[in-house]
Design goal:
Elements lengths: L20 E4 L2 E4 L2 E2 H7 L2 H10 L5 H14 L4 H9 L6 H12 L10 H26 L13 H10 L5 H14 L6 H11 L4 H13 L6 H10 L4 H14 L16 H17 L2 H18 L6 H10 L7 H23 L24
Antiparallel strand pairs: 1-2, 2-3
Length: about 375
């Protein structure tokens, strides 16, 4: 195995080159732009354009992108019928896997050039948000809502979920989470999408594969489990007692630690600052005290910092979003990065075909039936 350069899980292995994002201790950059500056100055639609088209949009390009998203938000009737028919206790990630695949039969875009794939990426971004919202309403015995013209993507998502135009602060928090989750290098789901694309398969198949990878608990769902942990506490003292026991037992605490960001996840710091401002105006001081009762000893005693999933969990909770939406909302954001990587992989046109290290039986003869 040493001769083959074997690394379990491909840990530390450079599997390819990309121009889309860079991840390291110094921070996260989308196409060279620092994530903190992007989060401060642009909206998700601008990040979507940056990832998929390679540059931040001009005013005219942004307006065209928003018009295109609006054009693609309405779901085909057969897809809506399937959304309605799936049992209500089905995991929403399973619903997305199925209905995104079904969407591929109603693709309004055509062609396979990079520009065609970019337009298809915008269609998928709009459609996935609509799928999540429509399914949420069906589960709650409500009918899906028609898209409302003039809303930004984050506003539209919240409107289609809740049936009312969100206030500016709520829309900004969702927009910020979409920006921060949009792209993160060769993570498991992105790599899955690139492997599928490397076979010259189609964009929808690559995104369906990425959704399947994100569904796995070792990749997605950490914000859901972080909120499930936070929800069990009634007071900061309850949370403090829990974390004391967890540290004594050396239990894993959801929402903490990162394979790359050993000294803290820059994205978590950005979202946490916005979360604190929202909690203050929303009268949620108790929740922030519980949050800090977990975070403070993890950082000061163990040197383990929150990752993005920890502040995101409480952010979504304070926006009245149920836990089963958390990972699907990750999909609604990360589809931008997935599509960018698929386009890059298509342009590279190089099949992924790694070697394996055989660790089974040595060469042996085939015994006759009488000797088995």
């Amino acid at each position: 195995m040493a001769e083959l350069g074997y690394s379990p899980g491909l840990a530390g292995v450079v599997a390819g080159a990309t121009r889309i994002s860079s991840v390291g201790q110094a921070g996260l950059r989308y196409r060279g732009y620092d994530i903190a500056k992007l989060a401060e100055t642009v909206c998700f639609e601008e990040v979507l354009h940056l990832l998929v088209y390679g540059e931040l949009p001009t005013r005219r390009q942004l307006a065209f992108l928003r018009d295109t998203l609006m054009e693609f938000r309405r779901l085909p009737r057969p897809v809506v019928d399937v959304l309605r028919s799936i049992p209500t206790d089905t995991d929403l990630m399973d619903v997305l896997r199925t209905t995104v695949s079904l969407l591929g039969h109603y693709d309004p875009t055509h062609g396979d050039t990079p520009d065609d794939l970019r337009r298809r990426s915008i269609w998928l971004t709009a459609s996935i948000a609509s799928l999540i919202a429509a399914r949420h309403r069906f589960v709650n015995r409500l009918e899906p809502l028609d898209p409302q013209p003039g809303l930004a993507h984050a506003e539209e998502l919240l409107f289609q979920l809740h049936g009312e135009t969100p206030d500016e602060q709520a829309a900004r928090l969702i927009d910020l989470s979409l920006i921060l989750y949009a792209e993160h290098d060769f993570n498991a789901s992105t790599f899955t999408a690139r492997v599928i694309a490397s076979t010259r398969s189609d964009l929808v198949s690559a995104i369906v594969g990425a959704i399947g990878a994100l569904k796995g608990p070792l990749h997605g769902g950490a914000n859901e489990r972080a909120m499930e942990m936070l929800a069990q506490f009634h007071t900061p003292d309850d949370a403090a007692a829990f974390i004391t026991r967890a540290l004594e037992r050396k239990d894993k605490v959801m929402g903490f630690g990162h394979r790359v960001y050993r000294n803290g996840d820059h994205r978590a710091e950005i979202l946490e600052a916005a979360l604190r401002r929202h909690a203050e105006t929303a009268g949620a001081a108790k929740w922030m005290a519980i949050y800090d009762a977990i975070k403070t000893p993890m950082v000061t005693e163990k040197g383990i910092h929150p990752n993005l999933d920890f502040p995101c969990a409480l952010t979504y909770h304070l926006l009245n979003l149920p836990v089963d939406l958390y990972t699907p909302l990750f999909v609604a954001s990360r589809v931008a990065g997935w599509c960018a990587h698929v386009i890059e992989q298509v342009e590279e046109d190089k099949l992924y075909r790694p070697l394996s290290a055989y660790v089974g039986e040595p060469p042996r003869p085939v015994p006759p039936m009488s000797a088995r």
